[in-house]
Write a structure and sequence with these properties.
Blueprint: H1 2-13, H2 17-24, H3 28-35, H4 43-53, H5 57-61, H6 76-90
Length: 92
């Protein structure tokens, strides 16, 4: 589940394994190993992955079906706009 979620989030962001590896300061082979389920990322790297993709670690691990986005630092007005955008997107 973790390997599939990493790959799905990477592809949704439109980046390749090299770009993800660079952003996380690891090798491309490391990312490939995660996605092919050969090795698991460390707890520290799991946290970095969650922050990079703006999801919870529970989502990455398949423990929670919901994706979340952080609204830290946004005003209430900005958050309200985001809610409207999300509702509009659901109707597409």
């Amino acid at each position: 589940m973790l390997n599939e979620n990493i790959k799905k989030l990477r592809l949704a962001r439109g980046i390749n394994q090299v770009e993800l590896a660079s952003a996380l300061n690891v090798s491309k082979q490391c990312v490939s190993n995660w996605e092919n389920d050969y090795i698991l990322p460390s707890v520290e790297m799991l946290i970095k992955l969650a922050k990079f993709f703006n999801v919870t670690t529970d989502y990455l691990l398949g423990l929670s079906p919901e994706k979340t986005i952080s609204v830290n630092g946004l005003t209430e007005e900005q958050i309200a706009h985001l809610r409207l955008i999300v509702e509009d997107l659901k109707q597409l």
